[in-house]
Amino acid sequence: MSTTEPNLSISNPHPEDTDVIQKVALVVACFGVLILLAAWANVALDAAIFMPIAIISMIGGTTVYGARSYLKQPEGIKNNGVWHFSLTSRGAFAWAVGILLTGFYILLYWFPGYVGFVQSGENQGLVALFDPLSMAIKGRPASQWFMYGTLYTIAILALGMKFIFKYRHNRYQLIRTISVMIAQLVFAYTIPEILAALNYNDVTTTAGEYAGYYDADIKNVWPLDYDFFYSYHLDAMQEEAYQPVGMIYLIAGMALFLVGTPVLTYLIGKRWYCSWVCGCGGLAETAGDPFRHLSSKKLGAWKLERWLIHSVMIFVFVMTAVTLYGYFTGTSSVFGLDIYSKFQKPYGFFIGAIFSGIIGVGFYPMLGNRVWCRFGCPMAGYMGIIQRFKSKFRITTNGGQCISCGNCSTYCEQGIDVRAYAQKGQNIVRASCVGCGVCSAVCPRGVLKLENGPEEKRYDLPPIIIGNESVKISD
């Protein structure tokens, strides 16, 4: 095989040892992490100096390591031994990482003091390390959420570069990865923080968090941004001091849910959001890429997926309806039930924190990288219904070329048994598919193709039929 052609064959499951450049890059990246740990342990560090060093080290070291790991190999996706490493095969290392991530999220949500956030006074530990950056952007000390948003963005940028090197042979993967990196850096991180600097709102929620129309990731939309219709949010967007931006943001958010989301999903499927824009999807596709093969392909998992995601959708619809009823009637209860304690707080605790945060990310090493997107995200569920029944998007298959290698099913992060469709030559039209295109990227025979076409032909017979009449081209 020519070295200029993508090598899609199965390679040695035991990758070559790292070279000197990779080792140095790994040390540099680990040095950045060491700075974070030292700050967390309250080691005296000059945050103005060590914070940028940590960021540059983590992004730079990871980028060089990824480049050296993949650019010295032929293009193409190969069996790189994912089932031979403890981290990616649910081994002891995977459980350790999962426990650490889960513990970090628990502290972040309910015990922010343990990561250094001080409500009244000077921050300490890990949060204090990011005070200079927060002061530079919005003139206020960092919160635990600013620290988390910064680390989240660093992870997507650094590991996004690694993803680009790995899938460099596939134009679709390059474009969508760059898209999620830009969406996270610009629309989920930079712009909201700049808006916070320009119009800081001192109104606080019942949880003691600062509110304001800029408070949410501006590329999020209800129902993913479930507190969009909370009273403090609606009030903030209508305050005179925030006009006209506040009202524009309110109208745009509602229009995106009511008009933009259905139209875009009809035209190109839910991939426009889940794989190109969403921050949860961005982290899953970059930091979570090594774990995509861990998603269960069992029918039982598919049934559980449908029950859970639609239950969450019902929950958020009921909670939002009750919230709006209370807002417009001026009451704090409905049918004798307190709106905050019986509807908003349970949703925020069980879905907004435990499901989307702790389980959604902390369980990457055990359940795969799209646990939240597959089983819980109400936005994905909403778009999935449209994609399943009223969309032009599908993945077409050429069953006559399938060799049943199973790469497509193995690397489907949504747990779809893609090979079963490919073997029958059937179009893949599933509500859960996020259109990441990795199934097509890892196929050695070009069997799969992501398409937008006439809606009525999504369920037609495949282009190649194998049966009693041998092989023929369908009409």
TrEMBL record:
A Pfam family: Fer4_5
Protein name per the record: 4Fe-4S ferredoxin-type domain-containing protein
Record keywords: 4Fe-4S, Electron transport, Iron, Iron-sulfur, Membrane, Metal-binding, Transmembrane, Transmembrane helix, Transport
The keyword Signal is assigned to this record: no
Gene3D superfamilies from the UniProt entry: 3.30.70.20
Record's GO cellular component terms: plasma membrane
GO molecular function: 4 iron, 4 sulfur cluster binding; metal ion binding
Domain 4Fe-4S ferredoxin-type: start-end pairs: 393-421, 424-453
Annotated TM spans: 20-41, 47-71, 92-111, 145-165, 177-198, 247-268, 307-327, 347-367
